[in-house]
Amino acid sequence: MTLLPRIFTDIKPDNVFNVLMIILCFYIFHFYYKHFTLINPLPGPISIPLIGIFRSNIDFNDQINKLNKIYGHNGIFEFYIAGRRLIVITKAEYAKKFLAPSVKDCKIYWKRFLKVELFEDLGFHQRGLTFNVNFNNWKFNRQIFIQSIEKISNSNETIKLLNELFEELSNYWIDINQNNYNSGIIDLTAWTKRFLNDLMFLLSTGKRSFAINYYYRKLKNEKITKNIMDSEHYIECLTYFLVNFRIAFIPKILRRLPLIRYHVDKFIDICNFLFERLLEVVREMREEIEKISNSNNFDMKQLKDNLLTSFIIANTPYESHPQKRVDSSLVKALNNDEISSILFDMLSGSTDSVCIM
User: Fold this and answer.
1) Does 320 reside within a domain?
2) Contact assessment for residue 248 and residue 81, using Cβ atoms and an 8 Å cutoff
3) So what's the pLDDT on residue 107?
4) pTM for the full model?
5) Which segments cross the bilayer (predicted)?
6) Residue 43 reports pLDDT greater than 80
């Protein structure tokens, strides 16, 4: 009983520091030993252990583009984020197998994302498509996603929505030019970003994000309604998630440090907010569908033609084009969490394309 207290009393600050330095030196040696003895080494910068090669004050996509110019001559290069090795493919022929729908390639290359502890804590790895590391769940979600995309791609409603949105955009441009708002200058990049955001929100959820309307009112210095501000806030949070994506790779041992803790907590809060808002949208749409389907004069044509509706009615009696000859494990309805995760992947994917622009 007296041995343990004696050990702790004999420990001096200098000894603790020496032990920590030995551990740190061993980790650095182990890190670089693994780096220089890789079986299949690829071009890329030499990284700093625990940190990587990325600077927090520079845009992630800009850094990737700079690395591609230096190391991506052969269409493939590597880099490290928080001690994790990541490989970037820049040639279409190399990426073909990863994106091919064949059963063989699907089984080999199904996992598109590595396991990250913070995403594991947030539940990202067990739902959706992008971050999902559960093969059966990913396979099920992928089947529903492809089926819904095919349905909406052949819909006249999709073409109608696209035309209406573009007509609205054209009217804004005409008004800006005639009244000389913003000196009559049309920033095509800024408008295109917001047009794509509006279109994706509309096709996926059936709701407007009011992105182009917000920008138009901002240029005219008009009053902006609460609904528009709420939608703009969601887009800003989604953009923050994508721009600060690398926060998720920070090792757990470093997350509670004073300079890092604030950013990690903010990142987690924004992730929770994004999913909660989508859950609300899914619940509202599900209630609306149940109300319509329970009416006496119910007709399938009464249901809205968007991806969210397709996700909700998939593998239910209300589905107009049920799946044929598929795995029995894929014939089940999606729950709200699964639907919100797929929507999140879609919206973040479109917003990520917008951020790159």
Assistant:
1) yes
2) no
3) 58
4) 0.74
5) 16-33
6) yes
Beta pairing partners, 76? 89
Characterize 166-202 residue by residue with b for buried, 16 or more Cβ atoms within 10 angstroms of its Cβ, and e for exposed.
Answer: eeebeebeeebeeeebeeeeeeeeebebbbbbbbbbb
Looking at the DSSP assignment, which residues form a beta bridge with residue 52? 48, 81
d(C-alpha 251, C-alpha 349), whole Å: 25
Domain containing 283 equals 149-356
User: For residue 252, is it within any domain?
Assistant: yes
C-alpha atoms less than 13 angstroms from C-alpha of 90 in its C-beta half-sphere: 16
Average pLDDT value for residue range 66-70 = 86
Tokens in use for 52?
Answer: 């990587």
**144-152 average pLDDT score:** 83
Residue 232: strand pairing partners: none
Do 196 and 331 lie in one domain? The reply is yes
Q: Which residues contact 192 (CB under 8 A, 6 or more apart)?
A: 357
Separation CA 79–CA 68 (nearest Å):
11
Each residue of 212-253: pLDDT tens digit? Answer: 999 889 888 888 888 889 888 998 898 899 888 888 888 888
pLDDT at 167: 93
Residue showing tokens 């979600």: 141
Cβ–Cβ contacts within 10 Å for residue 338, how many? 21
pLDDT tens figures, 95-137: 776 666 555 555 555 566 778 888 888 888 888 888 888 878 8
Phi, psi at 341, each rounded to 5°:
-70, -40
* One domain for residues 60 and 159: no
Domain assignment of residue 128, yes or no = no
Report residue 63 as tokens.
């850094």
Task: Name, in order, each residue with C-beta under 8 angstroms of 253's C-beta and a sequence gap of 6 or more.
Answer: none
CA distance 3 to 20: 23
Domain count within the chain: 2
**Residue 1: helix, strand or coil by DSSP?**
coil
Burial of 223 (0-12, 13-18, 19+ CB in 10 A): exposed
